[in-house]
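Quick start: read one record
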Amino acid sequence: MKPLVLIGADHGGVALKEQLAMWLVERGYPLRDMGTHSTAPVDYPDIAFLVARGVAEARAGGQEAFGVMIDGVGVASSMVCNRVPSIRSAPCWNEFSARSAREHNDAQVMTLGGRLIGDALACKLLETFLTTPFGGGRHQPRVDKIHLLAGEPAR
């Protein structure tokens, strides 16, 4: 079974969100759209928090889940997502960053810049992110340290 994907965007990423949502549905991923649904201005922290919290809650309940958040550049939303306990988020601009976020950091949320990358690249980055496993091994103590430094239990 494929993991649940929670997707969200602010007004700067809504068009790309719609393309990625269609791509996910066509490939059989269970999808939860956290908004927004128009280009009317919204505050990215509100949507990014919903995505990250939803991923954290699904995982806490034993469900495999990932998040995708799109804003204008992808950095600001990642900052918000990383404030949610147990979540590791990374902005992704190319395949290397998407693969490394998963393989080295076991990231559960990727953020994208709707004003920086096109639909085809975004689909490739999402595919890379969703299909790259965490490498474990030498990376696990570093991921554990992230949580310990934040006052959270290690995985």
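The mean pLDDT is 96.
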